[in-house]
Amino acid sequence: MRIPLASEVLPQPDWRFDPIREADITTSCPTCGAQQRLDEATVTQTNAEVVYTCREGCGPILKVTEAKPFMGKGGYRLGDWMIRNPQVVIVKIRGTQSLLLPAPEPLQDF
To answer: Which residues of 56-65 are buried (b: 16+ CB within 10 A; e: fewer)?
Structure first.
């Protein structure tokens, strides 16, 4: 099974606006604090998850996984997928306002 990128999991704006891209999604590294867009991060895709790693090499800044029952706290379920973010995520929807995903409760197994 292919795990989608974060931009593919987020609800897309209606036809009046451009689709969301990795360049439109910003978060910060929980280790070094560097704010960065997901297109600046190193992306690793496996059959189990997509991991975005800090551009400075510190560690993961965001993960996309399959949503499973009883996953515990620590992310946002979007249909069959889970976005797991240890820091605030800002999604810029070009032509309109931004969407804010607050950092959830402390992440388990991040």
So the answer is: eeeebbbbbb
Count of Cβ atoms closer than 10 Å to residue 109 Cβ: 9
How do residues 28-73 score in pLDDT, each as one tens digit?
A: 999 999 999 999 999 999 999 999 999 999 999 999 999 877 655 6
Q: How far apart are the C-alpha atoms of 17 and 108, rounded to whole Å?
A: 35
Closest CA to 27 of 46, 10, 14: 10
pTM here is 0.88
- Tokens of residue 1, six digits: 């099974």
User: How far is the C-alpha of 17 from the C-alpha of 27, rounded, in Å?
Assistant: 22
